[in-house]
């Protein structure tokens, strides 16, 4: 009889709690640590059936640690976990092997350079490392994001083991083949998000610029897109409104993508980071209704929908 793996997920945010729910539904024990977490995170952890344990217990009890938290905290959490791993040994021993195997998967939207820095945290420790990048939204009854994964070329066994988490409801897709290693799953995530969130940012930027010229210009832009670029206008009706509540999270992600692309073209996503920062400020303004930018974008998307619906009648 095979023993079920124990998974720890830090933290129970929108993504972490939904991944946890998938695993607990499949019968796995999912641990977390709620020190310092908000009531909303605590409620999500409870609903997903996660068990709150001290961080120092996780290295002893979990076989997998999935780091799913704000990308800016990814490196410091990895260091905190490594310190917790050694704290139960009284900091006196630095084992080269252990009977209890634990592997750490960084699942955050960080660039390849950052994930390599994170993986270095575990060099010369028995803790195995997986670079993972989640493409898609949180899993639900009808939908699964893909968790792309890569590992050190010398360490294919840990990648095979991570892939076996597919048995418990996760959609894991390992990157193997020529040159594949740590950094590649994150590079894939950066490339995909750079296109999908980049296109949304470009549309948002030009709607705001057109409207700043005059509202009549924005209306003319809408009608020209309807006539000559209907698929782009159609995309705007869904992607721009759904971006608004997530803009705060996309600021850091655009900065990571900018660093990934590098000097020159990387400035595109640096600019988009500033755009999403501006949207985040606008979301917080206007007593719940949002500031001027939010109103302009919502109106553009609503008008575009009316024009598209009018054409299909
Ligand atoms: N949501 C998506 O659609 C999606 C898609 C693909 C990838 N991802 C990736 O998944 C990760 C998490 O995203 P999310 O949407 O779940 O974010 P989220 O809903 O904002 O949740 C973040 C979670 O991390 C906790 N947290 C904040 N700072 C922490 C720290 N220093 N140590 C431990 N926990 C901390 C938060 O707790 P508090 O509530 O107490 O602040 C919260 O539970 C990100 O790297 C993101 O790029 C998300």
From TrEMBL:
- Residue span, 6-phosphogluconate dehydrogenase NADP-binding domain: 7-157
User: Which residues belong to any copy of the Phosphogluconate dehydrogenase NAD-binding putative C-terminal domain?
Assistant: 212-279
A matching Pfam family: DUF1932
What lineage is this protein's organism placed in? Eukaryota, Fungi, Dikarya, Basidiomycota, Agaricomycotina
Please give the name of this protein: 6-phosphogluconate dehydrogenase C-terminal domain-like protein
InterPro entries, per the entry: 6-PGluconate_DH-like_C_sf, 6PGD_dom2, 6PGDH_NADP-bd, NAD(P)-bd_dom_sf, Pgluconate_DH_NAD-bd_C
Q: Which domain of life is it from?
A: Eukaryota
């Amino acid at each position: 009889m095979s023993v079920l793996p124990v998974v720890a997920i830090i933290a129970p945010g929108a993504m972490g709690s939904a991944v946890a729910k998938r695993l607990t539904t499949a019968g796995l024990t999912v641990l977390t640590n709620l020190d310092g977490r908000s009531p909303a995170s605590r409620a999500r952890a409870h609903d997903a059936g996660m068990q709150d344990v001290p961080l120092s217990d996780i290295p002893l009890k979990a076989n997998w640690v999935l780091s799913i938290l704000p990308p800016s905290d990814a490196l410091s959490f990895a260091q905190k976990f490594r310190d917790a791993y050694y704290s139960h040994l009284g900091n006196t021993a630095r084992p080269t092997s252990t009977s209890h195997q634990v592997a750490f998967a960084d699942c955050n939207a960080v660039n390849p350079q950052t994930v390599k820095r994170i993986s270095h945290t575990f060099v010369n420790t028995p803790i195995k490392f997986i670079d993972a990048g989640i493409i898609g939204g949180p899993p639900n009854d009808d939908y699964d994001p893909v968790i792309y994964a890569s590992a050190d070329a010398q360490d294919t066994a840990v990648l095979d083991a991570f892939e076996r988490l597919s048995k418990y409801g996760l959609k894991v897709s390992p990157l193997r083949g020529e040159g594949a290693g740590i950094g590649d799953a994150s590079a894939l995530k950066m490339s995909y998000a750079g296109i999908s969130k980049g296109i949304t940012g470009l549309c948002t930027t030009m709607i705001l610029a057109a409207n700043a010229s005059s509202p009549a210009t924005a209306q003319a832009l809408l009608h020209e897109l309807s006539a000559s670029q209907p698929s782009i206008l159609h995309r705007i009706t869904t992607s721009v409104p759904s971006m608004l509540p997530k803009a705060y999270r996309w600021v850091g992600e655009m900065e990571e993508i900018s660093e990934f692309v590098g000097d020159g073209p990387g400035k595109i996503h640096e600019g988009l980071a500033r755009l999403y920062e501006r949207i985040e400020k606008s979301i917080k303004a206007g007593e719940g209704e949002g500031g001027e930018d939010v109103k302009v974008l919502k109106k553009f998307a609503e008008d575009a929908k009316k024009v598209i619906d009018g054409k299909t009648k």
